[in-house]
Amino acid sequence: MDVGAFVQENKRWLLGVAIGSVVWLVASSVVGSMFKVTNPTVKSSDKVWPAAARDAARDEHEKLVAERQKLQQELGFVPTPKFQLANNGRPDEYQFQLSGDLKKAIVAAAQRRDVQAGDTALQWELPAAIDDIRATVFGLELVDELQQRLFAAHDATRAADENAIGLRAILSLKLDARRGQRPQARAARAGEVDLRDFLVQEPVSFQFQADEPTVTAFLESLRRPGRTLVLDSVLVQKPVRAGEPCTVKGVVQGIAWKEGKA
């Protein structure tokens, strides 16, 4: 398959990849702008800012609030109660249960569709620290969401053409190993904001083999209000022989707002 031809045939989802990256950069900028604003004190505001400047700043602030809410809805991933630790017993035991159930579900779904996917393709550690467990459980929901959309893309492709390859193999679904503790905090500069105080971000790396319609359907399914998997990177490798599936590898991010910080 010629790479140039592939790009021409798949302009829509390639454009979506680029847009997704740009939108996330814009989102980070907006969030940072939101929380970097330092309002002058009532005592000094009249001396520092004339009324027209204060009104303009207030209008800009309201626009930023509205834009942040829009981006939060478009790019955010809202966890479900099933993948939260509250009211689900001991965190370590619940993490172990979720992990086992998810692996079984993925392998079973693959077997029903004659898709190659073994236990070794599903890789993540089960940490012991409570904050790491919470992050891993969030990551497991992202893996669950990703595999559902991948199989849905396969089903849609095969429904449209029963002779299509669809999804051939899941080579890897992986959560990054937990690094234990957050890097040691340093004194913040004036106006500096650490987005980790407001957002939870977890990456999921993937690698699979599928035909072009399945790849396109999968990538187009990533954006879903309230359940978006933000595409961080993607690489599509052309097959060695014509008629074989592409190999796709990449990383998606799940972004959730911390409670009370939205």
How far from one another are the termini?
A: 46 Å
CATH overall fold name: Alpha-Beta Plaits
CATH architecture: 2-Layer Sandwich
Count of DSSP strands? 5
Q: Note poorly predicted spans.
A: none
Category by helix and strand content: alpha+beta
The averaged pLDDT comes out at 80
In one word, what is the shape?
globular
CATH level 4 superfamily: Ribosomal protein S6/Translation elongation factor EF1B
Written as H for each helix and E for each strand, in order along the chain, the element string is HHHHHEHEEHEE
Instruction: Specify the helix fraction band.
Output: 40-55%
Number of helices: 7
Strand content: 15-25%
- The whole-angstrom Rg is 22 Å
The CATH top-level class label:
Alpha Beta
Number of domains: 1
Main β-sheet, in a few words?
A: 5 strands, mixed
Strand order of the largest sheet: 1-2-3-5-4
Q: What is the secondary structure topology, with strand pairs?
A:
Elements lengths: L2 H7 L1 H26 L5 H7 L2 H25 L15 H22 L9 E2 L6 H31 L6 E9 L23 E12 L1 H9 L9 E8 L8 E12 L5
